[in-house]
Design a protein that fits this description.
Oligomer: single chain
Distance between the termini: 38 Å
Number of strands: 9
Strand order of the largest sheet: 1-4-3-2-5-6
Shape: globular
Bound molecules: pantoate
Largest sheet: 6 strands, parallel
Radius of gyration: 19 Å
Strand content: 15-25%
Order of helices and strands: EHEHEHHEHHHHEHEHHHEEE
Structural class: alpha/beta
Number of helices: 12
């Protein structure tokens, strides 16, 4: 496995692979890797000749400077995990390497950035759109792997690939959970042990919502019951709990038979912002 910090060396390395007819699987990350990322790398390994993983804590997608500062950075540990998972190239640029100048380009994802994460993290998806486009241009992947845990990011990247005609296939992989149901996330390591103990309630609240919908409650009734349920757990500050159509993220009033539905949540626990979702 090679580790490259430089864009031109990365493109040179990959140009040779592409010239030799190799397919490239790409897993973009911000590091602080966990089994969720490794599952993406392993899938990419099975489906491609070469696997590239990028590790870059992208400053332009953080609307909160404190969050950017606290984002865990564990490059050495990450590289060890990637080596074991069979990654071939780690692209780990500095912010100066990625952004010679602050980008002036603004990507407006319309409705997709006015709701949920977009509403609470203004500018976030513009930053994601720009960095993902830059990474796609640098790596030129055959297939790119994203986790369903970031459901709205998946919708945004789908739009990006379509609107900018990126010649690649997007592969969306299931959320990987701890044995108690907590969705794996780089942010989990910032939780205190007492917060970590109650953190699985986030997933539990998604399953409770799903149960109410299956019992025939409409969206408003379900949301109200879940919000009430959270009143007994004052350690959580709910930012949103929404029930939407899973692909478009359009609001729905009631779950209909055969309709692909998502319940999405963002909540603060112990000062750490966690997100999760289920699709059914
Ligand atoms: O999901 C992430 O880790 C990031 O948003 C991504 C896709 C690597 C872009 O910085």
């Amino acid at each position: 496995m090679v580790i490259i910090e430089n864009i031109s060396e990365t493109t040179e390395f990959l140009k040779n692979q592409i010239k030799n007819g190799k397919s490239i699987g790409f897993v973009p990350t911000m590091g602080a890797l966990h089994q969720g990322h490794i599952a993406l790398v392993e899938k990419a390994k099975l489906e491609n000749d070469i696997v590239v993983c990028s590790i870059f804590v992208n400053p332009t997608q953080f609307n909160n400077p404190e969050d950017l500062k606290k984002y865990p950075r564990t490059l050495e540990e990450d590289c060890k995990m990637l080596q074991v998972a069979g990654c071939d190239l780690v692209f780990a640029p500095s912010a100066e390497e990625m952004y010679e100048e602050t980008p002036v380009l603004k990507i407006d994802f319309g409705y997709l950035e006015q709701i949920l994460e977009g509403k609470f993290r203004p500018g976030h998806f513009n930053g994601v759109g720009i960095v993902v486009s830059k990474l796609f241009n640098i790596v030129k992947p055959t297939k790119a792997y994203f986790g369903q845990k970031d459901l709205q990011q998946v919708a945004v990247v789908k739009r990006l690939v379509k609107d900018l005609s990126f010649d690649l296939e997007l592969i969306v992989c299931d959320t990987i959970r701890e044995s108690d149901g907590l969705a794996m996330s780089s942010r989990n390591r910032r939780l205190s042990s007492s917060a970590r103990e109650v953190a699985p309630k986030i997933f539990e609240s998604l399953l409770i919502g799903q149960k109410y919908l299956f019992e025939g409650l409409n969206v408003e009734e379900t949301k109200q019951k879940v919000v009430e349920w959270y009143e007994n757990s004052p350690e959580f500050t709910l930012e949103y709990y929404e029930i939407v159509e899973a692909d478009t993220l359009n609001p729905i009033e009631k779950k209909h038979e055969g309709q692909k539905t998502a319940i999405v949540i963002a909540a603060f626990l112990d000062g750490v912002r966690l997100i999760d979702n289920i699709v059914f």
